[in-house]
């Protein structure tokens, strides 16, 4: 009885008239537009699903209903029951537009699974049909590629085999004749069809082997178009999926099975015995070999020459993937790759093609026991130096380094030595490559070249200016244009660029690799020569990325630097803060970075102050440094007061403390002198308060100095209330100076307490000092406040 009822429902579904079906679809369309989905809507969808599933042929539904069902299918907020029914209805009806379904692949796994079931069903029908070599297949491949890119494991094994078989057919068995083209037969006659002509190679020779994208014709057949589509997407369609499937089953195949499979794949005549995935790999390998062979032909058209370059890049990349999946192909590929490298090595127009070749060597040279040193020497020495002005090459070169940074550090000796060349890409294309170099820079830092790299980063704007001059000079040389075509400022720089006197400066700044020295003695002269280039847009943009790179550099180096390197870096900070290319805001921004990391270096290794005491004392004792680099000078004074202590370094003697105290005392006295003709101070109140505090700290460590600092501090009120200072500083600033001086004077009246407050022990930042109420710094401050209160009888007279 149940079977009879079921049979009756199916019969009714099959016999429903087209007009009745359209009315029923219209009612469902209205139900789906209501806010609340009722049981009637679900019942109607179930009935529609039965109708479209009951017949062998696909029923055509109204387009507006199909679009609505697709919307429901893609909506993650819809009930799952509606999504299941929508998916089933769309699968069983006439093929929908799979473009709209794949326009925005959802990241919701449930929703995507239903969308994928519809798309893959339609794609499978298309690929299995005899008419699959038509226009619809051309549109299907990009959609399938898009879905595989988003979810690589979406295809089943059967679907992977189906795709592999179709790709092999399209890739290898395209027709060898041009497509039929219609030509006009004259004014009084209709169009006539020309006989198909044979395809030719890019050099005009008739094609003698199978069809590839480098075969030339006036028009192409559908299977030839599918050949081109397949090659352009084979990395995704063929190896993006097959790789996952093969990896899943790789553990199940023994080495013996693998070797047998390799022997079979090595023979083209027996390739039909291979499973679909391995056969696709074999045919793709042969296709790439043929493209590399075709790329050696002299193209008749410039566009074909560019196509040859693109095909070389793609072919080598595909062969690299194939060899990665099956190492037996390495021995077949290397003779072809070595011959290709020998042919392209000296031609700069093929520089981009050298990158996939280098990638191939990097991945497989050890397997084939091939020496790759010459390849990477050529790559890192010539390409950046001669092709730095090619934006696409610059981007791809840096991406290559990023992708292989760890391997390059371990296996390519000259990788880290080549940072002067690599930074030419950044100097010329600074705005486009800054993010990539922020990520790449840590891999370029090595102990033996870290200081030279720091100097090179600081000289990056000079490098941009020198590259600009080099390009202009080469252009003038090749075109024989007079120098007067340049503006006067650039002409002066070009003239200096040509002079033998300055040749050494430019040779150093344009050097291809590290190791010739950390920096040069005549750096100030170089800045003067390039002064007229400081407002060049390229130089200004390059200067803007230097502070960013410095932050990355210091953050990386301070994690692994030893004592020797930290001492060298401190000397660079002291030396280079006054030796920077004079660009608007450049010096200020670099000095801010210097100030921040000066504190970090001294916090990590406090003995630096004693190690470099002579250089630090020389810098701090010069008031001229205040007016040109106040922020950095203030931080130098602060680290002196913070870390020049015997608690950090037992070498810190009273004599050393006294020498620093006397120098800073002289500086404070000089900048705070009150004269009738004195001009308003050009430094901030912050510098004054830091100097006062540092002198007080040093005095607590050598208490014989307390009377001297107290006398100095007592004069601060007169300074702060003088007319020039009042005219320059706000009321809050002057009160801050007076208050700080008053607090320090009162604190120094109790030297032992002052030493506790101003110079806590090295463990003062440990949690105990802030949590333990008996030992915490706030507890000590409260005790001091009580002692120093104006009404306290403990105050000394």
Automatic annotation (TrEMBL):
AP-5 complex subunit zeta-1 ARM repeats domain mapped to chain residues: 307-424
Domain annotation AP-5 complex subunit zeta-1 C-terminal TPR: ranges: 436-787
InterPro entries, A to Z: AP5Z1, AP5Z1_ARM, TPR_AP5Z1_C, TPR_AP5Z1_N
Entry's Gene Ontology cellular component terms: AP-5 adaptor complex
Residue span(s) of domain AP-5 complex subunit zeta-1 N-terminal TPR: 1-266
Pfam families: SPG48, TPR_AP5Z1, TPR_AP5Z1_C
Annotated PANTHER family: AP-5 COMPLEX SUBUNIT ZETA-1 (PTHR46488:SF1)
Protein name (Swiss-Prot/TrEMBL): Adaptor related protein complex 5 subunit zeta 1
């Amino acid at each position: 009885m149940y079977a009879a009822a079921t049979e009756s429902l199916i019969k009714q579904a099959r016999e429903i008239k087209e007009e009745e079906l359209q009315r029923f679809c219209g009612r469902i369309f209205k139900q789906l537009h209501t806010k609340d989905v009722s049981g009637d809507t679900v019942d109607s969808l179930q009935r529609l699903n039965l109708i479209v599933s009951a017949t062998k042929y696909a029923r055509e539904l109204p387009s507006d209903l199909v679009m609505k069902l697709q919307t429901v299918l893609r909506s993650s907020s819809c009930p799952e029951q509606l999504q299941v029914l929508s998916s089933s209805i769309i699968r069983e009806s006439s093929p929908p537009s799979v473009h709209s379904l794949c326009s925005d692949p959802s990241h919701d796994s449930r929703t995507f699974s239903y969308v994928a079931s519809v798309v893959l069903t339609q794609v499978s029908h298309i690929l299995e049909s005899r008419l699959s070599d038509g226009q619809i297949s051309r549109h299907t491949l990009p959609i399938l590629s898009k879905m595989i890119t988003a979810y690589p494991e979406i295809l089943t094994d059967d679907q992977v085999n189906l795709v592999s078989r179709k790709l092999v057919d399209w890739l290898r068995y395209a027709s060898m004749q041009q497509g039929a083209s219609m030509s006009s037969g004259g004014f009084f006659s209709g169009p006539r069809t020309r006989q198909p002509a044979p395809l030719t190679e890019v050099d005009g020779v008739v094609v003698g082997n199978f069809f590839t994208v480098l075969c030339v014709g006036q028009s192409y057949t559908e299977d030839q178009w599918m050949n081109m589509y397949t090659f352009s997407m084979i990395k995704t369609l063929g190896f993006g999926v097959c790789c996952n499937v093969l990896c899943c089953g790789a553990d199940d195949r023994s080495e013996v099975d693998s070797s047998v499979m390799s022997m079979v794949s090595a023979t083209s005549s027996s390739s039909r015995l291979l499973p679909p995935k391995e056969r696709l790999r074999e045919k793709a390998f042969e296709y790439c070999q043929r493209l590399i062979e075709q790329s050696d032909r002299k193209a008749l058209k410039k566009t074909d020459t560019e196509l040859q370059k693109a095909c070389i890049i793609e072919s080598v990349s595909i062969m690299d993937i194939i060899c990665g999946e099956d190492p037996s192909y390495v021995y077949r590929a290397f003779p072809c790759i070595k011959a290709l490298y020998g042919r392209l090595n000296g031609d700069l127009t093929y520089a981009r093609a050298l990158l996939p070749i280098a990638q191939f060597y990097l991945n497989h040279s050890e397997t084939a026991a091939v020496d790759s040193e010459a390849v990477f020497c050529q790559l890192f020495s010539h390409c950046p130096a001669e092709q730095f002005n090619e934006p696409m090459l610059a981007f791809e070169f840096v991406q290559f380094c990023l992708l292989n940074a760890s391997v390059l550090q371990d296996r390519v000796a000259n990788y880290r030595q080549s940072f002067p060349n690599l930074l030419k890409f950044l100097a010329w294309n600074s705005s486009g490559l800054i993010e990539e170099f922020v990520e790449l820079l840590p891999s370029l830092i090595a102990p033996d070249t870290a200081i030279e790299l720091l100097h090179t980063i600081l000289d990056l704007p000079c490098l941009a200016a020198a590259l600009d001059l080099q390009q202009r000079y080469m252009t003038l040389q090749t075109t024989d244009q007079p120098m007067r075509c340049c503006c006067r400022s650039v002409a002066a720089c070009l003239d200096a660029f040509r002079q033998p006197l300055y040749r050494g400066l430019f040779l150093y700044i344009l050097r291809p690799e590290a190791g010739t020295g950390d920096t040069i003695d005549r750096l100030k002269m170089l800045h003067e020569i390039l002064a007229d280039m400081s407002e060049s847009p390229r130089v200004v943009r390059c200067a803007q990325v230097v502070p960013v790179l410095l932050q990355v550099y210091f953050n990386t180096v301070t994690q692994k630097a030893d004592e020797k390197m930290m001492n060298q870096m401190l000397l660079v900070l002291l030396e280079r803060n006054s030796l920077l290319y004079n660009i608007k805001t450049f010096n200020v921004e670099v000095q801010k970075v210097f100030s921040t990391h000066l504190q970090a270096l001294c916090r990590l290794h406090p003995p630096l102050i004693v190690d470099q005491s002579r250089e630090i004392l020389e810098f701090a004792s010069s008031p001229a440094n205040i007016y040109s680099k106040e922020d950095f000078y203030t931080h130098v004074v602060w680290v002196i007061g913070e870390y020049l202590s015997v608690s950090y370094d037992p070498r810190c003697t009273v004599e050393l403390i006294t020498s620093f105290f006397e120098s800073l005392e002289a500086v404070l006295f000089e900048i705070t002198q009150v004269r009738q003709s004195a001009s308003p101070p050009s430094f901030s109140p912050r510098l004054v308060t830091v100097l006062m505090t540092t002198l007080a700290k040093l005095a607590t460590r050598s208490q014989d100095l307390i009377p001297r600092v107290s006398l100095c501090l007592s004069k601060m009120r007169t300074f702060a209330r003088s007319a020039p200072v009042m005219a320059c500083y706000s009321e809050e600033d002057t009160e801050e100076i007076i208050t700080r001086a008053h607090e320090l004077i009162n604190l120094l009246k109790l030297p032992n307490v002052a030493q506790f407050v101003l110079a806590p022990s090295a463990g003062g930042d440990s949690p105990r000092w802030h949590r333990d109420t008996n030992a915490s710094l706030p507890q000590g401050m409260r005790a001091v406040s009580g002692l120093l209160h104006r009404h306290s009888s403990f105050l000394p007279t």
